[in-house]
Each structure stands twice: as C-alpha cells, then as structure tokens.
From TrEMBL:
Superkingdom of this protein's organism: Bacteria
Biological process terms in GO annotation: regulation of polysaccharide biosynthetic process
Family of the protein in this entry: Belongs to the RseB family.
Annotated source species: Nitrosospira lacus
Keyword list, A-Z: Periplasm, Signal
Protein name: Transcriptional regulator
Amino acid sequence: MTRVALAALVVLSGIMQPVFAQHPSRSSPEALEWLQKIAAAPRQHNYIGTFVYSSGNHIETSRIIHLVDAEGEHEKSEVLDGAPQEIVRNNDEMRCYMPESKTIVTEKRWLQKVFPALLPQPLSSLDDSYIVKLGGQERVSDHACQIIELEPRDDKRYGHKWWVDTRSGVLLKAAVMDKDRVVEQFVFTQLKIGVEIDKESLKSKYMAKAAGWRTINLVSSTLGSGKLGWQIKDPPPGFKKVIEMKRNLSGKPMPVGHIALSDGLAAVSVFIEPVSGQVAPPVEGLYRSRGAINIYSRTVADHIVTAVGEVPPATVMQIGDSVVSHRVK
C-alpha cells in the first residue's frame, strides 16, 4: 500500500505559515515540455532498479520492476527494509502482500502515486499552482539528468525538485521541498532502463503460500458529485475535487465516505465515517506522519472527518475544517 493509504488506515483505526515571497509568474515552456515527458515515461519504458526513500532519520530501500506491453503497465515493488511488503500492480489494480500478518490487500490505484511515476496521465495544468523552472544538469546513478524545479505559487503546497533521465524522461531522483529544506526524497541507486523483462518476474514471490491468507478488498464505489452528503466548502486555491466515493477500509463495519482533491500534483484525501460506539474515535487534531504526509482529524455532526495528504499542515487543516454536511438532492 502507498504511504498515504497506510497513514489514513492508522488514524481511521484509532491507533499558519508565512506567505512565500513574490515570484516570476510564468513557467518555462521548455520545463513544461519536460513535465509531459516525465508523465509519459512510465507508459513507454521498461525499467528495473533499486531506490532509497529518506526522511529525517528514516531510510527505506525498495526494489522495482516495471514492464509496459500491449495490455498496459505491470509492476512489482518490494520493500527491502523492515517488515516485508510487496505490491503487484496491473494498470490500476493493486495487490499488496504482507507476509508477517498473512494478509493481502486489494484496491484501485486512484490518485496514489509510486516513485518514479509521480505525475498523472493525462497531465493537467500545473502552471496555476507552481512555477515550473529548468535547472542545470547532473549525474544520478550513472545517468545524465535534467533538473526540473516546481516552485509553489503560495504556501498551500510543497515545492518539488526532480532529476530526470535526459534520454527516457524517467525520474531518477525526486525531492519534496519546504522552501530550502528537503522534507523527503527518493533516489535510484541502481537503474536499468529499456531492458527486456520476463513477465514471470512480476509475479509475487508469496503467491504459492498466500492461498490461505486473509484477503481485504478495499472496494470503492464512485458517486455522482454531491451524492455523498458532504462537501469541501473552502478548499485552498488550486485544489479541486477529483472524485467522491464510498470505500471499504480494513476494520470498518461499513463503507467510509471518501472525497479526493488535487492541484494536479499534490493530493488530499478526506475520509468521513459515523462515530461508532464500538471503536474509540481518534484524538482530534493534527498528526505528524512521516515525510510530507500530514493528517488532521475532527468531529463534525457525529462523524469523524480525517484529512490526509502530502501537503503542509496548514493546508490539511484548512481542508479538514472546510468539510460540511449538506442535504443530498
């Protein structure tokens, strides 16, 4: 599962900043062309590699195999440190194998992003929320890279600095920035692009022994706009509702409401569930999760509202405080 999904499950199971200085208002046309190349790369190239995620004192290593064929994208990623975990993806269908708990979690990808595929396709305009700039060139894991910087136009979102393989457009390194401070970073330490991949290598190594494991299906059913009975009344500039749905979550007796917002890059999920006498509600307030993820929980009209996203604390709080109920027409 992705870090945002895991953070949301932890909270739902009970377990203001100065405005940035004025910037030039226009993005570099050449840098915007690079964004298109970055977004398209995972749909065009095979790759096998090992990357490291770091945030503060936490370091985590993962291995990824990515294949593109006539049927779409196929991918297997495996966490190599700590508790073992393996994610197998076929296009938007994901299966997460967790051998220590003998559990398989299945779900759709929706807005979830896994390095190096950090940009959606088709790529929506990021120019409204970020100034996209062309940086210099550097070498990462023996690949020549073009640096692209995404500078936020306000303090409602983090900045980003990306190192892009000049030949393929695959991201080799990605840093989330809070002004000059690195909040979190992904970097390939070894990567082969354009290699032949045996489809058998994309199968989970736990398949044979997982027949008797518990399977949790995080089924989602999308709803028409406004049909959930909740809305985000005052979202931060640039953040638009992408989808609203009902989702099954592990340990929940009934589906949970879910509204997703995005500015084209950063995404925030809002989960809404009735207060249950069987489960102690999470403590209200702001939770600091790992890296760029922040979580905010409050109670509204006998419901627990939890906002989770890779955005600054003030942004996730603004979104959580803007959730109101309304009559469904």
